[in-house]
Amino acid sequence: MLQVKDLSVTYRARRGPGVAAVRGVDFEIPDSTFVGLVGESGCGKSTLGFAIAALLDERRNTVRGHVLLDGVDLYQLSPDQLRALRWSKLSVVLQGGMNAFNPVLRLKHQFMDVMKAHAKLSKAEMTKRIAQLLAAVELDPAVMESYPHELSGGMKQRAAIALALVLEPRLVILDEPTTALDVVVQRSIVTMLSQLQHRLRFSVLFVSHDLGLVLEVAQRVMVMYAGQIVEDKPADLIIDEAHHPYTKALLGCYANPRATRVSLTGIPGTPPDLREHLHGCPFAPRCTQRMDICETEAPRLLPLKDGSVACHLYTHKEVPAR
Ligand SMILES: Nc1ncnc2c1ncn2[C@@H]1O[C@H](COP(=O)(O)OP(=O)(O)OP(=O)(O)O)[C@@H](O)[C@H]1O
Ligand SMILES: [Mg+2]
Which of 10, 14, 25, 47 to mutate to test the pocket of ligand 1 (most atoms within 8 A of CB)? Predict the structure, then answer.
């Protein structure tokens, strides 16, 4: 359904090198699949999400590569063709989606605006559809008469998800949709989203820095570091079978709820500056298993039995240096 091929994004700078936030990313998402995209702050998750949705301003940013939705390359389409595709094939929910609603319009008008632009429905049909969608995200359909400020943050985010689904898209990209909410509300929204995804069979790219949250709902997890996908794995295997030292380090940031004593390790050091050209493996300076080759040669994403990993530990049989 979605194919991303050798996608790179550079935010150009007025002076000096730009920020190469996405560096040659390749992956596919089949129909009806819930994929999580995780990684530390600044690793390029949002940039990748925006690039897939073709939301980056190409006058100011350089986007290279291909994003194919059902075989159609979004970067070959005219602005009108792209507009026709948005909402109906692909929609986006942002963290700021809570504030994405126009404050002076009742919710139902904002739903109707999207519907009017794409489909010919009577007012009664639109109202019925809005009620169904609000019920699907576990909101009282009467909420459609409300103004955005009359809703709590959690309710607004549910409404933003309902709006994203209004034209039954094939792919919904959610960028940190619950990060501003408390953990209980976060959990209930993510569970609701996962149930909806199962029922309506769209695909999800769920961007989050919270690996724990992602593991609860995603079928597959992609781990991003310094603009690249470093590991891609079925979610149920990642805890026991993580290959990449970065994935293992991320997992070390979470407590095992079954353990009687817990020590959290964290990840020493910081991610590299994405303005610079990176030699070798970008994680090498922080990696406890680095080898000589890691300093000079960039590892490529190689397929494993389940998923794929970009790490020299699995391409070269050297003894770790330390
Ligand atoms: N508009 C922009 N102009 C220049 N650089 C940018 C811009 N947006 C993001 N960046 C840079 O691109 C890199 C990737 O940022 P991005 O927002 O994609 O990361 P992220 O993984 O989503 O982080 P977070 O978890 O904090 O949301 C960072 O170094 C960031 O500073
Ligand atoms: Mg982000």
Answer: 47
